[in-house]
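Lab notebook, page 48
Experiment: co-folding of the full assembly
Goal: obtain a model of how the components sit together before planning crosslinking
Operator: M.T.
Materials (sequences as entered):
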Amino acid sequence: MSTQAAIRVKGLTKSFKDVDVLRGVDFDVEAGSIFALLGSNGAGKTTVVNILSTLLKAGAGTAVVNGFDVATQAAHVRESISLTGQFAAVDEILTGRENLVLVARLRHLKNPGAIADDLLARFALTDAANRRGSTYSGGMRRRLDIAMSLIGNPPIIFLDEPTTGLDPEGRIEVWQTVKQLAGHGTTVLLTTQYLDEAEQLADRIAILHKGTIIQNGTLAQLKQLLPVATVEYVEKQPSLEDVFLALVGDTATTGTTAEYRIDSSVTTRKDIR
Amino acid sequence: MSAHVIADTSVLTGRSLRHILRSPDTIITTVVTPIALMLLFVYVLGGAIHTGSSQSYVNYLLPGILLITIASGVAYTAYRLFLDLQGGIFERFASMPIARSSVLWAHVFTSLAANVVSVTVVIGVALIMGFRTGASFSAWLAVAGMLILFILALTWLAVIAGLSAKTVDGASAFSYPLIFLPFISSAFVPTSSMPGPVAWFAENQPVTSIVNTIRALFAQQPIGSDIWVALGWFLGILVVAYTFAIASYRHKIS
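Observation: model returned without errors.
Model output:
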């Protein structure tokens, strides 16, 4: 697999009623790399991810994941991937540990308990293992969500806007997790609307705009597309993020104690209940 | 894949049963309304109702109350399914190498378990209120079979509601007419006391035949043709609801 493309997408289209969401998307993702699909809201990022993870059928074109066609070999594709969707897919009534055990059992693995304990430790969630998912902060919830996706070691992971709605600390926690994943040889396809996120994480970035890929390259290649850099002297001010993180003083690895939330998406979804 | 249907279904059923154990209020709210209706009808209105039979009114009433219990219980199935869809965990399951139908079956089995508990609670209260039956073990089995078929039929309707709802309220709203249906049946008063068109509707809607069958089984009386009508309704509702539920589920996952 090392030299082969882990994901191969050619001429992918998708329409919902009269709206053409995807109008011929092409890209390849090299095995073991982090690939960012960058685009604004409504660009079609989630549609691409849902087609690749067999949740949606494409209108036309082909998509091959881990050597399997998503249309004709969906079952094999599902064996090869894990999806971390836009909303943290955590069972709120089950505890963190029970969530992990559930997925391990659904993947028909031996020793689901041991797998769960191992992941809880890896994601600094051991202290929160026996608390219900609904009590987790946004960052913890995302980490649990990603931990659930790692069970069974799928070679390819899709992360759909993994940091949307997270506070700055939660975001950094997720970034560290994603980097570790790629370090272990997992292929990561992530979608994001944040430029800095793509810049921080991705080996290769494709810009999805109005249903097509308008640029695809490494960060360096994309930067070359712009006019030659001019040298200006600008006083380096700390960004608000630097200030916030310095004041709060916590680092991501000890995020288990973070109880407060700035996260809006998580709280509103709780309000439904 | 399909070799895992049973294992996956049991894992997922365990999950949603745990949901019920951790929010027993879903069982309590399910049984409160039927018990309140039973108290109201037996102790307030019942004295003025002439059923034309020699048995006590609570005996007459119980079958209909059990159907109301089930109709309000299945609303929670729609609700839980809707929450799974909303929360994204449904997409997680659909993108995993698990037998796809197991996601729905798990909710169906959970509904069955929860409703059996609710029905048992309501029967317990009825016994306290003076419900008595000399029904044999096999008659009880027949009653249980009828109720289980009723739960399954309504649960598959609930699955359609849960899959197609746009809001939480919409997910459970489908159960209101089902809860109301026993009122226009032989559940509370004999249909012969109703004006012509109403009586016609009451006699030809599913609840009457089911109620009459269960009542006859409890009273150790001959069942007559009602049981075949009831079974026909069960089968019809089950087949139609199941077909639509599966179609709506297929539409949802791809």
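Interpretation: The CA atoms of residues 77 and 189 of chain A lie 14 Å apart.
Next step: discuss with group before ordering constructs.
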